[in-house]
Design goal:
Length: 366
């Protein structure tokens, strides 16, 4: 099936594997800030029915992926789009924890990629194992003897995984330059951490593609990072007002929902920022019904699970004491006396009487 889209069309390859409610907010975000773009979902989880209720194409080659090796994700999407003869200008990969902060991303790509074929964030060019202490770079050098024949270069390039951009013409060249079966076997056997951050951009370089990094302002460039801490509202606010930045990463879970609502509302920071998770969240403007239903369910569940803490009741242990150690076990070294102090003479008399009664009973029973 052949599909033709307008020149300059962006296709977002979105990797997701769990939490359809968060996915609904992210889809809302992408469609709102990038009208006219297309989204292809890649199901990287174990549930084959995940996200099928959404009206968007799902890559049929989707498979369960593990953290540290997501190479199959972009590879499968590239291959499927080419098999379906889908025409586009830019292919951009997105993680499940990325949000756009404003409109204009396509115009930004048209301007910044005028003479380039590929673009990514935080570019590292490595010519030896001493160039970088990043785990992905170090592990690539451990297997460089396997990957060097594939790339036919003496060095490799690394981009942060989310928001890598590739022109369609370059993607065609990349797929045609390698053996698919061999590549998929190497993807499965590799021990390189985050191979996806180096494989595609280095393959693009070996195909003659012109590579560049996202433009960035060194005084304020922390809009994307590998993991925690997540992007704050203040950082997203600065990114929204900066001409270079159109997306932020990472934003996860409830933080993604809150930031999505804030971005959709157009509120400023911090006076009109979102409420805390314990308070009812403001109703988002132009948000999908799916997002609104999730917010209502979340608030209802939080209210239902709230329990009143009560002080534990401590029961006093009842202690039974014998008046003396005269009857029962004779293991007591010191008889317990209470009340008025008994004299030694009185105690001897009681002991003598007890022995006499015991002897009398024994005699009677005989």
């Amino acid at each position: 099936m052949q599909r033709k889209y307008e020149v300059g069309l962006m296709i977002f390859a979105l990797l997701a594997h769990e939490d359809e409610h968060t996915l609904a907010a992210q889809l809302d975000n992408i469609r709102h800030f990038n009208p006219g773009s297309r989204i292809v979902l890649y199901n990287g989880g174990t549930d084959p029915d995940f996200a099928r209720r959404f009206e968007l194409p799902i890559c049929p080659y989707s498979r369960p992926l593990n953290h540290g090796n997501l190479t199959f994700y972009m590879w499968d999407v590239m291959r499927w789009l080419e098999e379906e003869h889908v025409d586009y200008e830019y292919l951009i990969n997105l993680d499940h924890d990325l949000l756009f902060v404003k409109h204009g991303f396509q115009a930004f790509l048209n301007e910044t990629m005028g003479k380039y074929d590929c673009m990514g964030w935080d570019m590292v060019t490595s010519r030896s194992s001493e160039d970088s202490e990043l785990t992905c770079v170090q592990t690539m050098w451990d297997e460089w003897h396997l990957w060097k024949p594939v790339f036919q270069t003496d060095h490799f390039i690394r981009f942060l995984n989310p928001a890598q951009v590739y022109r369609h013409q370059l993607v065609r060249c990349m797929l045609a330059s390698v053996d698919r079966v061999k590549m998929e076997r190497m993807f499965s056997e590799t021990r390189v951490f985050a191979l996806e951050e180096m494989f595609f951009v280095t393959l693009a370089l070996s195909c003659g593609g012109k590579i560049r990094e996202y433009p960035r302002d060194e005084t304020w460039h922390k809009v994307a990072r590998f993991q925690w801490p997540g992007i704050s509202h203040e950082e997203a606010y600065h990114a929204r007002d900066h001409p270079y930045y159109f997306w932020v990463h990472p934003v996860k879970g409830i933080a993604l929902f809150q930031m999505h609502q804030w971005l959709m509302s157009g509120a400023s920071f911090p006076q009109e920022a979102l409420s805390t998770p314990e308070e009812p969240a403001a109703k988002p403007q132009a948000a999908s019904s799916e997002v609104q239903r999730y917010v209502r369910r979340r608030n209802h569940k939080a209210k239902r699970n709230t329990k009143v803490k009560r002080k534990p009741v401590v029961k006093k242990k009842k202690i039974s004491l014998k008046r003396t150690g005269l009857r029962g076990s004779r293991r007591r070294s010191k008889p317990l006396l209470y009340g008025k102090m008994k004299s030694a003479k009185s105690i001897r008399g009681r002991l003598k009487g007890a022995k006499g009664r015991g002897a009398k009973k024994h005699k009677t029973s005989g």
